[in-house]
């Protein structure tokens, strides 16, 4: 199996995008009650982007990456965790 370690570029892009969307959500504070749905969706989307960027950053610091099997299927970083906890029964 080949291991692909994530580069800094996607991590920084996700982090920067999440911060920009979060700042845009708070630009017009007075109009938040009028556009509450858009504001909430902006917050959710920005926190998802920020959370994923911090997740990738933490996995990069731990030295883990994405695994490629013989068929070219990408296996997520969580596979090691699932093996350790016993949640992954079949390999």
Rough shape?
elongated
- Proportion of beta-strand residues: 5-15%
- Strand order, main sheet: write it out: 1-2-3
Helix count, per DSSP?
A: 3
Structure description:
There is one protein chain. By secondary structure, the chain is mainly α. Helices cover 57% and strands 9% of the residues. The protein has three helices and three strands; from the N terminus they run E-H-H-E-E-H. It has helices spanning 8-25, 36-62, 79-85, and strands at residues 2-4, 66-68, 74-75. Strands 1-2-3 form a three-stranded antiparallel beta sheet, with no helix packed on it. Helix 1 (8-25) runs antiparallel to helix 2. It starts with a strand and ends in a 6-residue tail after the last helix. The mean pLDDT is 81.
Q: What are the defining features of this structure?
A:
3 helices, 91 residues, three-stranded antiparallel β-sheet, mainly alpha
In short:
The protein is about 55% helix and about 10% strand. With about 90 residues, the protein is mainly alpha-helical. It has a three-stranded antiparallel beta sheet with strand order 1-2-3, with no helix packed on it.
Break the fold down into its secondary structure elements and pairings.
Blueprint: E1 2-4, H1 8-25, H2 36-62, E2 66-68, E3 74-75, H3 79-85
Antiparallel strand pairs: 1-2, 2-3
């Amino acid at each position: 199996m080949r291991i692909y370690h994530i580069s800094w570029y996607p991590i920084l892009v996700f982090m920067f995008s999440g911060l920009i969307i979060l700042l845009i959500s708070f630009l017009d504070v007075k109009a938040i009650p009028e556009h509450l749905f858009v504001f909430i969706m902006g917050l959710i989307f920005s926190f998802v982007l920020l959370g994923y960027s911090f997740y990738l950053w933490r996995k990069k610091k731990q030295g883990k990456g994405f695994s490629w099997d013989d068929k070219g299927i990408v296996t997520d970083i969580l596979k090691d965790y699932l093996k350790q906890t016993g949640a992954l029964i079949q390999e």
